[in-house]
Amino acid sequence: MTVATPHLLEAVVVGAGPAGLSAAKELLSACPEFRNDGRGDGEISRRKIVVLEESDAVGGMWHRSGEAHRPDDGEDCPGRLYVSDDGEDGAEISVATSCQPLYDGLVANLPKHLIASETRLIPTTSRRWPVLITLHDLLPYIQFLTRVVRCSKAIDAGGTSFWEVKAIEQCRDGSKDDVTYRSKRLVVCTGHHRKAYVPPFIRGARHFSGGAMHSSAFRSPDQFREGSTVLIVGGGISGADIAKILVRSTKKDDRPLKVFVSVREWKFLPHALLLRKLKKEGMVRPGISHVDEAGFVHFDASAVASSEVTAAPVRPDAIIFATGYRCHYPFLPNNGGFIWQEGHGTHRLYLGMLHADDPSLAFLHSLAFLQVPIILIEYQSRWYAQYVRGNLEVVREKMEAGILSRNGDPTLDDLKTGIFAAGCAGRKALANF
Fold it and tell me: CB-based contacts of 48: which residues, under 8 Å, 6+ apart?
């Protein structure tokens, strides 16, 4: 085990995606003393903050080749999930997944004024990432091919608590080294689109003999045979977008793919906007009921809320589960009350950022509320940087009141609300600094 730095770091940032890069930039801007001795010197012994990135380049999930450097270890990036048959032990559907949820034709589905980066840190194309990182002088602070495996609190001989961050670093010769970083603060900027979710049970699942994948493993229509019937489970943004791509994929003289979308609960947004055409063509189904012995998928007829939605059974050749993700932080202690591992959210975060029980732990990231504009991540990062600088006073009573005001439960925090509160707070902070 190697200790990466002889001194205590000011901050360890986990992830070099949009949130991690924004966090590093704002911390260095608000706290110039965090910069390396001798600006631009990349010696690790001189760093006061470090960004740990497990792939070989920046960009997070927008780094299209990043999956090659993400381990398939059965826990952090499983590569395959299973939908069990509720009526028979051992019978299940094998579902392919991926740690890199990008597919051909994927574009942002928000107006450019919302998705764009105010500071121009986040580029519009992946080819611009290295250029912009160099311009913002962030490269010396990023440690590539370094995977965080464990973060825990420790206390030094003087009684000062700090974060002990254990990581596995891939060396230039291909070997791996166990490295430990010690830091005053831990800033988590990853984890939300990492662990795919599929429904754990479908009655009669053993009768389905086709191929199944999560939307994270979808890349292009070429993954399906000509004329195949494809059932997409989940009509959210990803499901609707993939349905559109499949419907439009048919080439001249090819037999078209037959696409159906199962929507458990119809909502105006995004369903009415994105699935309107498929709905009129009778391709939308309600939630799945069961699979019969002939391989036909039956749907919940009681959930049909429109004459344009039918519960007629479908016999698919392939199923795409566009059923979302779960928060996944395997490197954080799950017995200390920090993380709610099984759900969509994280416990007790003031403004969706600072942990109420330990403000040295912060989360800066895009969250699963449709799609969060990058500009809000930048506001989060600026608010956090000003907090670290000491320009914003945050007391325990204020944090508890802020958490309670959003959901009425002091033990939980709704991140879907917190992200917007954090963005507004960050924007307000910018007006003063």
Answer: 7, 9, 10, 11, 33, 34, 35, 36
Structure pTM? 0.83
E strand intervals along 68-124: 80-84, 92-96
Strands (E), 280-413: 284-285, 288-291, 297-299, 318-321, 325-326, 349-350, 354-355, 358-363
What phi and psi, each to the nearest 5 degrees, are found at residue 97?
-130, 175
Q: CB-hemisphere CA count at 13 Å for 27?
A: 28
Are the C-beta atoms of 77 and 99 separated by less than 8 Å?
Answer: yes
User: Which two structure tokens, joined as six digits, stand for 138?
Assistant: 């962030």
pLDDT mean over 247-257: 76
**Strand ranges for 7-128 from DSSP E:** 11-14, 49-52, 80-84, 92-96
The C-alpha atoms of residue 410 and residue 404 are separated, in whole angstroms, by 5
Of all helices (H) and strands (E), which one includes residue 161? strand 161-170
Beta strands 80-84 and 92-96: pairing type?
Answer: antiparallel
Residue with tokens 């979302």: 324
Residue 143: closest CA among 18, 24, 308, 236 = 24
**Range of weakest confidence among 164-168, 323-327, 383-387, 419-423:** 419-423
Whether residue 332 contacts residue 151, with contact meaning beta carbons closer than 8 Å, is answered with yes
- Listing DSSP states for 142-156 in one string gives EE-SEEEEEEEEEE-
Measure the CA–CA gap between 371 and 368, rounded to whole angstroms. 6
pLDDT in tens, 304-319: 666 667 889 999 999 9
**According to the model, what pLDDT value does residue 135 have?**
52
Q: So what's the pLDDT on residue 433?
A: 45
Average pLDDT, the chain: 77
